């Protein structure tokens, strides 16, 4: 390790850092000569992944901090001025969640935009990510920035970029923005205007409640049954995030008076005191929701993540026990509901999911005569594919989802929307109640018609530069030596998406299709230091067979598939 060169880079960064806190942090690391820590902080610049920038808060170019955000925003602003002729009239939306440093990062973002002569439409208070996405289209803005780390732990923050079409950026915008950022001057030389200066020039524009009210009206229009229910009991958690008042108000406006918030998690708190990892998928994250639901005897539990772009759902089964639905199960329910109960309009209905989600939505779409696409992981690909087919073929996008609890119904937003999805799930539950059934009963109806798909995900966290190297080695090993069998099941096809499989853009994903309809997919996370493995098994219930019996058999086969694959992963370099 060239410690002299590393020290020089770190000193130069420290001197250019506009934030006294991260200046002092880096000075302390330098004083202790912690070369491993320094090497990781300067291993690379944070770059746009699945959802823009995201990283641990701290000093250095490989961390989230005010210096990185100021330089990123300057590059984004200059790229916009070079590519969007009317950006200085349309402006850019700036929103934020309630995490640590989100207010400062959002203010820095707006301050850089207005210094570049680009109006900043600024949410003065924290808002859900889908509200920022909605505002792009509602205000006809040229772009938007949402400061959020979504469901990551409290030490993270992030910076999500939307284009003028309301969707997250895709190539070539991400490459062009990254190139523009690389040419930006040191952070302490990036021009800024204060909010007062910006307001005086008419460039800093504080958004009123009108935008939020328009968003609420738009998602209320997504409902299909539209009758609500006086008897359905709902529990809702904001997971210490910003979705609380929005979701509760929307549900009550939709005719659901029996909504009980999880009191301990309803107010925004970037420390996330009741959960280590504020992701509804994580073990223990739903414990307080479950306890509240049992106390009030709720029929359905709805859980947003901290920026309210994801949704988890719990519902009671035939025995009265609450069960957490998987993201794929919620996706299948919403997809089937929208395709069968939605209004019959002009245009071929179109649904979209991702290459790591269940294949069942495709089977449903084909069975119901709808257009269907699988795209790369990340909602930006779902939204942009929907826009592309609508433009070129006249299709009508009605639903999209990814298994990581992300859903959007219709076109109110061009991103996943946990508040809008919660509203439609409640609407669907009321429709089920009117038919004398419940959400899991409806899911069984779908599975008897289209097959029983079960799935699971395993994540291996490998932090730092060394972890990134291990992840690359695992992916390369599976590419170089793909298995012929996984457990007792033959691999029928290998799909290496790095080669642009299926006409999709190249992506670091490998999938093994299995005989009988199963699938194993592996990919590095675009937002966290993880490698992710996705598993799916399809089982066909016998005529008249109780579905719980078929599910038990399917889960056993899925478990064996997972065990067999993890043995292969360890042979290819994954730590035990």
UniProtKB/TrEMBL annotation:
Domain of life: Bacteria
Protein family (similarity comment): Belongs to the phosphohexose mutase family.
Matching Pfam families: PGM_PMM_I, PGM_PMM_II, PGM_PMM_III, PGM_PMM_IV
Chain ranges of the Alpha-D-phosphohexomutase C-terminal domain: 496-539
Coiled coil (UniProt feature): none
Domain called Alpha-D-phosphohexomutase alpha/beta/alpha: residue spans: 47-185, 225-317, 327-430
Protein name in UniProt: Phospho-sugar mutase
InterPro entries linked to this entry: A-D-PHexomutase_a/b/a-I (IPR005844), A-D-PHexomutase_a/b/a-I/II/III (IPR016055), A-D-PHexomutase_a/b/a-II (IPR005845), A-D-PHexomutase_a/b/a-III (IPR005846), A-D-PHexomutase_C (IPR005843), A-D-PHexomutase_C_sf (IPR036900), A-D-PHexomutase_CS (IPR016066), Alpha-D-phosphohexomutase_SF (IPR005841)
Region (Disordered): 1-21
Basic and acidic residues biased stretches: 1-18
Known cofactor(s): Mg(2+)
Keywords: Isomerase, Magnesium, Metal-binding, Phosphoprotein
């Amino acid at each position: 390790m060239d410690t002299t060169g590393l020290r020089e880079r770190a000193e130069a960064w420290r001197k250019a850092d506009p934030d006294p806190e991260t200046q002092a942090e880096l000075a302390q690391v330098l004083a202790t000569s912690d070369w491993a820590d320094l090497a990781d902080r300067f291993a690379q610049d944070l770059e746009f992944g699945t959802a823009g920038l995201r990283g641990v808060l701290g000093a250095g170019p490989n961390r989230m901090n005010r210096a990185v955000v100021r330089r990123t925003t300057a590059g984004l602003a200059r790229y916009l001025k070079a590519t969007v002729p009317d950006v200085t009239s349309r402006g850019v939306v700036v929103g934020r969640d309630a995490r640590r440093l989100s207010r400062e990062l959002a203010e820095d973002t707006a301050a850089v935009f207005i210094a570049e002569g680009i109006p900043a439409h600024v949410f003065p208070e924290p808002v859900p990510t889908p509200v920022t996405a909605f505002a792009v289209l509602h205000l006809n803005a040229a772009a938007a920035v949402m400061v959020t780390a979504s469901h990551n732990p409290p030490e993270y923050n992030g910076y999500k970029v939307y284009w003028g079409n309301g969707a997250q950026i895709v190539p070539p915008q991400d490459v062009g923005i990254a190139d523009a950022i690389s040419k930006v001057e040191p952070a302490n030389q990036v021009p800024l205007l204060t909010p007062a200066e910006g307001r005086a020039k008419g460039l800093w524009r504080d958004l009123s409640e009108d935008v939020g009210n328009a968003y609420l009206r738009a998602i209320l229009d997504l409902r299909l049954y539209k009758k609500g229910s006086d008897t359905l009991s709902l529990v809702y958690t904001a997971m210490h995030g910003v979705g609380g008042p929005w979701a509760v108000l929307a549900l009550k406006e939709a005719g659901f008076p029996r909504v009980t918030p999880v009191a301990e998690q309803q107010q925004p708190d970037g420390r996330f005191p009741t959960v280590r990892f504020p992701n509804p998928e994580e073990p223990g994250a739903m414990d307080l929701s479950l306890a509240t639901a049992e106390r009030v005897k709720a029929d359905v539990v709805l859980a947003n993540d901290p920026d309210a772009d994801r949704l988890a759902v719990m519902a009671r089964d035939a025995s009265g026990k609450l069960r957490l639905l998987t993201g794929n199960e919620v996706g299948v329910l919403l997809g089937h509901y929208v395709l069968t109960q939605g209004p019959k309009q002009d245009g071929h209905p179109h649904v979209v999911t991702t290459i790591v989600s269940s294949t069942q939505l495709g089977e449903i779409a084909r069975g119901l005569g709808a257009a269907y696409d699988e795209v790369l992981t990340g909602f930006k690909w779902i939204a942009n594919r929907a826009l592309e087919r609508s433009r070129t073929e006249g299709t009508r996008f009605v639903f999209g989802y990814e298994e990581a609890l992300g859903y959007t119904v219709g076109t109110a937003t061009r991103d996943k929307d946990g508040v809008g999805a919660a509203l439609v799930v409640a609407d669907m539950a009321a429709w089920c109640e009117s038919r004398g059934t419940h959400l899991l009963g409806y899911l069984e109806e779908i599975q008897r018609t289209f097959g029983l798909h079960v799935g699971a995900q395993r994540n291996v966290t490998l932090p730092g530069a060394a972890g990134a190297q291990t992840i690359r080695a695992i992916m390369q090993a599976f590419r170089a030596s793909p298995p012929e069998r996984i457990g007792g099941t033959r691999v029928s096809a290998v799909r290496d998406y790095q080669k642009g499989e299926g006409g999709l853009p190249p992506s670091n994903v490998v999938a093994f299709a299995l005989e009988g309809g199963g699938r194993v997919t592996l990919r590095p996370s675009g937002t966290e230091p993880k490698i992710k493995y996705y598993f799916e098994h399809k089982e066909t219930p016998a005529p008249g067979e109780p579905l719980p019996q078929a599910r038990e058999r399917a889960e056993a086969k899925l478990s064996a598939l997972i065990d067999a694959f993890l043995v292969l992963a360890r042979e290819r370099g994954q730590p035990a």
